């Protein structure tokens, strides 16, 4: 079989939310449903197949507006998916995120016992997501989505989270978000780093060859073909605490911004330290053609420019040989802010819930999301940093500080508090459109 034949994707059967970068700016809403009546749940799946936007619709009148539907392991059981089919799903998916909490570092304040109800419970069956460039478009997308669940008393809406992205593309800590995303072979969507060869489609979509030549599938074939796994996490951000930490460890405003860059790996504008090590460069940060074109091992192996322990270098070590085969752990990441921004300069917590709805898309929960979370974000053995965690999202205990290389002497900051607290989440499956119809046609 030729490379082109292997890479050709059936875009009309893949949900658009899997491959398409989100618009900038954008608004989004997550809706969670519980299936109380199997027949009504199946009807929801049938209707969803007509409502969900496919990856082939990128040039349709809908523009950058779409609806996606994901189902949890509990949801598939509620729909009556046979045990033989359930057993072909990844075991992490079948266990669910709450059961994997310790592996993910979701302990203490982030533990499932503290999650926002009903997240992490067996009641979470279906996650419907609507995305649009603005609030008006989002309202239209939600109206379109309503056709899937309207007048189905056996399907109950149990949770909602409204999200947004600012025109500045920043999240609550003030950094430009959504800067890096991989190119998927055969998708037609360019990646953000011209130096990265497109990844095999099987890394993100079931039924295609992945980086090691394997093809992940489910039984029956129609259920898995063109599907993907999705991770949803609600992450509360302690913005005032983060600002105070920077202020208390800096010698002044300029040094504060340098520390913020050394912690993240990019200046707040999105300009990477790798390309602008001494000062911020807003023009670079706003340029998607330039801001992600760099490597680490080739240009900065010791981390004097971009610290090995900073957030973006942990999340994607790029060409770093010490991290193993990086391409096997690549993910499609998306984030959407929720809650009101904390006014600029405020250093006291106002009690509002604000943070990020994080989404991961991939075909291998274990060696993608869970590996990165446990081995790269909450540990540092892969680059010789011991057991220190990611300075931004790591599971910190207030005892271990953050250290980064500097000549002539490395710089050590004070112990890190936990800046991000997990409020809930779930592992989901994003079926292809044909699979949605198959779920709708299930018989007892």
Automatic annotation (TrEMBL):
Its cofactor is heme b. Residues 27-136 form the DyP dimeric alpha+beta barrel domain. Transmembrane segments: none annotated. Keywords: Iron, Metal-binding, Oxidoreductase, Peroxidase. It holds the Pfam family DyP_N. GO terms for molecular function: peroxidase activity. Belongs to the DyP-type peroxidase family. PANTHER family: BLR4509 PROTEIN, DEFERROCHELATASE/PEROXIDASE. This is Dyp-type peroxidase.
């Amino acid at each position: 079989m030729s490379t082109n034949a292997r890479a050709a994707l059936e875009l009309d059967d893949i949900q658009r939310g899997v491959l398409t970068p989100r618009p900038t700016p954008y608004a989004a809403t997550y809706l969670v449903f519980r299936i109380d009546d199997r027949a009504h749940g199946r009807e929801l799946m049938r209707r969803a197949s007509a409502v969900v936007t496919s990856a082939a619709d990128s040039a349709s009148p809908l523009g950058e507006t779409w609806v996606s539907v994901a189902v949890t392991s509990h949801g598939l059981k509620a729909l009556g998916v046979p045990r033989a089919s359930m057993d072909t799903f990844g075991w992490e998916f079948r266990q669910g995120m709450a059961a994997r909490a310790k592996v993910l570092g979701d302990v203490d304040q982030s533990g499932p016992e503290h999650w926002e109800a009903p997240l992490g419970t067996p009641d979470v069956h279906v996650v419907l997501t609507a995305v649009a460039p603005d609030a008006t478009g989002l309202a239209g997308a939600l109206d379109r989505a309503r056709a899937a669940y309207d007048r189905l008393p056996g399907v109950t809406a149990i949770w909602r989270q409204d999200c947004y992205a600012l025109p500045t593309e920043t999240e609550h800590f003030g950094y430009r978000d959504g800067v890096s995303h991989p190119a998927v072979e055969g998708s037609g969507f360019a990646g953000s780093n011209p130096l990265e060869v497109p990844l095999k489609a099987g890394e993100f979509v079931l039924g295609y060859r992945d980086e090691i030549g394997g093809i992940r599938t489910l039984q029956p074939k129609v259920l898995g073909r063109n599907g993907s796994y999705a991770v949803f996490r609600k992450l509360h951000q302690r913005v005032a605490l983060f600002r105070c930490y920077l202020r208390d460890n800096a010698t002044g405003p300029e040094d504060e911004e340098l520390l913020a860059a050394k912690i993240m790996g990019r200046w707040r504008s999105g300009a990477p330290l790798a390309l602008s090590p001494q000062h911020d460069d807003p023009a670079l940060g706003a340029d998607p053609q330039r801001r992600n074109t760099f490597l680490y091992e080739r240009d900065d192996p010791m981390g004097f420019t971009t610290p090995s322990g900073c957030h973006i270098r942990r999340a994607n070590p790029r060409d770093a040989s010490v991290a193993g085969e990086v391409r096997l752990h690549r993910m499609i990441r998306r984030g959407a802010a929720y809650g009101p921004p904390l006014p600029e300069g405020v250093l006291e917590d106002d009690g509002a819930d604000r943070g990020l709805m994080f989404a991961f898309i991939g075909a291998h929960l274990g060696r993608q999301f869970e590996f990165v979370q446990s081995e790269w974000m909450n540990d540092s053995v892969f680059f010789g940093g011991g057991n220190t965690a990611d300075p931004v999202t790591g599971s910190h205990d207030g005892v271990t500080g953050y250290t980064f290389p500097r000549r002539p002497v490395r710089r050590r900051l004070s112990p890190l508090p936990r800046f991000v607290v997990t409020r809930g989440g779930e592992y989901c499956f994003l079926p292809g459109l044909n699979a949605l119809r198959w779920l709708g046609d299930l018989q007892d």
